Amino acid sequence: MSRRCQLTGKKANNAYAVSHSHRRTKKLQQPNLQYKRVWWASGDRWVRLRLSTKAIRTLEKKGLEIMAQEAGINLNAC
After folding, report:
1. Which residues make Cβ contacts (< 8 Å) with residue 56, sequence separation at least 6?
2. Domains and CATH numbers, the chain
3. Which residue among 9, 14, 21, 25 is least enclosed by CB atoms within 10 Å?
4. In 10 A of CB 57, how many CB atoms?
5. Per-residue model confidence (pLDDT) at position 2
């Protein structure tokens, strides 16, 4: 499984680690992903998703149904 948020699609970002002497080496900035069990009311069950922490905050505001619809996810398969 790739390190990608299932609702927002967030993934790793290419960046440079810059030392004091300004030597640059490539690194990856990974998103803060968490496994989260979310209650799906219309499906009457728990759904386990791998979400970024920002997606968890947005999920509390919008709700699971709307975010899954925007992301094009079928919650029955999760």
Report:
1. 34, 36
2. 13-77 (2.30.170.40)
3. 21
4. 11
5. 85
Neighbours of 37 (CB within 10 A): 8
Residue 1, pLDDT > 70, answer no
Two structure tokens written together for 6: 């299932």
Cα–Cα distances (Å) from 33 to 6, 20, 39, 55, in that order, read 10, 30, 18, 9
Q: What is the spatial distance between Cα 19 and Cα 46, in angstroms, rounded to a whole number?
A: 45
Matching residue, tokens 């440079």? 16
- The secondary structure element, H or E, covering residue 67 is helix 64-71
pLDDT in tens, 28-48: 999 999 999 999 999 999 999
